[in-house]
Amino acid sequence: MNYKPVIGLEVHVELKTKSKMFCGCSADYFGQKPNTHTCPVCLGLPGALPVPNKKAIDWCVMIGLALNCKIANFSKFDRKNYFYPDLAKGYQISQYDQPFCQKGSIELSSGKKIGITRVHMEEDTAKLTHQNQDSLIDFNRSGVPLVEIVTEPEFENAKEVVEYLKKLQQIVRYLGVSNADMEEGNMRLEPNISLRKEGETGLPKYKVEVKNINSFRFVEKAIEFEIKRQTEILDTGELPIQETRGWNETKNKTVSQRVKEEANDYRYFPEPDIPPVILSDSQIEKLKSQMPETPNAKSERFKKEFNLTDYDAEILTREKLMADYFEEAVIVGKKHNLNPKQIANEIINRKTNINDVLPAELIKKIVSAKQTISISDEALEKIINKVIAANTKAVEDYKKGKTNVVMFLIGQVMREAKQKLDTTVIKNILISKLK
Amino acid sequence: MNLNQLTIKEAKEGLKNKKFSSVEITKACLERIKNIEPKLNAFVTVTEREALESAKKADDLTSQGEVLEAKPLLGIPISIKDNFCTIGILTTASSKVLENFIPPYDATVVEKLKNAGAIILGKTNMDAWAHGSSTETSDFGSTKNPWNLKRLPGGSSGGAAASVASDEALLGIGSETAGSIRQPASWCGTVGLKPTYGRVSRYGVIAMASSLDSPGPITKIVEDSALLLNILAGHDQKDATTSPKKIENYTKNLDKNIKGLRIGISDDYFKGVDEDVVLKVHEALKLFGKEGAIIKNIKLFDPSSSIAVYTILQRAEVSSNLARYDGIRYGNGREYFGEEAKRRIMLGTYALSAGYYDAYYKKAQQVRTLIVKDFNEAFENVDVIIAPTSPSTALPVGSSKDNPMFGELADILVEPSSIAGLPGINITCGFSRDNLPIGMQVIGPQFAESLILNVAYKYEQQKPFYRQRANL
Amino acid sequence: MKIDINHVAKLANLPLNSSEKEKFEKQLSETLTYVNKLNSIDTKNIEPTSQVTGLENVVREDEAKPALTQAEALSNTKSQHNGFFKVKAILE
Question: How far apart are CA B26 and CA B333, in angstroms?
Fold first, then answer.
């Protein structure tokens, strides 16, 4: 029997704000001593009250904008009530029916568009670690801002999912709002996977949620495992149980965690401690204008402005650091009459390590590489010495302070050499000689 | 007169003129507490040593000519309801769940009181988690009414009201969700002010119903109440529901002429009310008429519908607010909750649960909108609304037992204004045949504290019932 | 109406004994009967009021402020270990 996978994704991105979502505790919890970044609010002490972090809200909206969402003019926080030792208040402040962003989309390389159902704001729970018979709780992470991004169940295979995740990670890193590192836990995902018969429309009558996936490699493995597992069950005529499963990386399989009992009744109601958030269209426009350029936009611009191929543009904009480096190099390169294509080639083909080589140095390298065939260092020096000797007045003027005379001298050097040379190189040599 | 019998106004005067010291007043209060607490049980915790230390420090400051204006409560001994977090002092909300909880932080109100120089005598008894109108549901024994030990003080700020009425303290800080300041003030014969919701910070007050809780002062006279509002009111960065509205000087217009004041009264607020109470409130209205006020009959939303609204909203918010008490980070486990708390959590959970949210919670919030609208319309035609605070005088000890709706029914006359977030003040307007205080309330539109204080003050000038003290 | 008291108690994370369950089932039903009075009030097209303040957009700047010390954070717990709060292992 042929089945088509129906996959939706829920991703949580941890924002790298300075403070937590609802209190002023530092949000930088990685590697800190346990329970050293807490206060009455994030510790859930009696009487404590939440006050939302403005920057976190702005960043959530930016993520929504980058995903082409409609931003709500009226939005609010809601309480999601459930009990767990890592949940200090016995409820999580989240968003239910009026989130900041809805109905967006993202385009995959195949041209297929994946619908983004919603992007909303919530707070992280404490960290639980296990030791023998006990569980240990550290509330440093409790209250850190999380943005939840939910897609429509429109993925059909693991490859699409991985592509989406990489794109999402890139967007979020470009915006500078999160490190989005799966291994560090600041980007977490839960796919829900089900299968339907070929030709069938409508959503399957069950779905399986998979947790505990912390790398792109495992995403593929977990999804593929699940598809296989569910196929086997469906082939017997049974329906897979609706449940939450965990990816076990040592066993390379998903394992049943707990039956999705009575689907937890979260008893959502509007958060009485926090007034609603009203965003006017002009405020949303302002946020849009403050947003750093998205990877997509930058790539398109590079193609247009610098006449680059799709391939080159994609590589150069894969990471913001690289894109910024390239643009800087283009600016420097212009002064030496290099075109962006040449610079792109150099970086891509020679696999330049942008951490070691400054843009200016890179340009120098390209230029001198072009020059070495035409004239040797000795020959150049001879010519320069000749020009200096033949232009005593100019030299005197330069020494008197008329520094732009050097341009004239450069011109003379080129005339003598009977070719165009790297003006910077000549200038440097001239200046050192004229000291 | 003993020093503990002074009003704040009188105490300040005496301290300023060096007639007595803060240590002396504090000692008088502590003496009184020692004598009557075995009978009264108004306090959960008495902080004798700390109080005397603070009093000594206060006296040192005054002897150095420290500006008393910057510290308007310097040297004044006060009590604080046990749902306000106080650093280093046991804070229990009168529940066994928190019987060992010592907060590492102060509520904003407590910070303000400390900055004003107040001397904290201790934490007062309440209905556990503020769930009630009798103080009988306290896990640490009920408080009695200073006017008659066989009677209840009201609740949930019963300990606070009793401590002021019995002259154990010159001020009791309380909190009201729906009646918890006004009703015990009424039953104990004190002035009780419930400010507009959002006028005073809730940060550090153990949450009961987040959209209703309002901290406020219980005092012997109206002027003391106004002084306290000056200290407590104001925007707090830590409480997102506090109003950014500027604070006025609430003592400035106390004596303003009330000629032409339009007072609204609604027949529904007198239905089912004790004869004595109706009589005394009507007498008060006659007095207002003589002062030039215009009494107008108005029709308000039937207060009994407020009971249903309040029951649902409060219990729903309570069920969520009490979820943090799991015994892990502090306190005892959930099996330590008393019966009333458990009952309210259960109902609240039910009202919010899948399938019932629309029928109960959402419906209650919609009716809430109607109640708010109703008051807004009423205040277009009247300036204040006057009514009895409680349908009766203090009820006998034991009245609340096995009566799940006791609180709501007792608070019927204060629930509507609480639901709408309006300010209200209770003032004694007489005594019943069995010498129990009768309270009348003045309700105003949002942020009209100056006006209702003014009205209460003018009445008090004519009828200083506060001079009659409980014979305990 | 029949209230599934066991289900509600589970949702509320409240340990109740059987006599409590029985008592509450009865009392809750009574209270709800009273509350049903709301049904007689017409609320068609009426917006619910979540907050009476009318406030909007109350936010704070993203600045880190001093926290409680580890000792203060742990000061009221009955069970701790090396700076962590400790509970019996949660079965995953």
Answer: 37
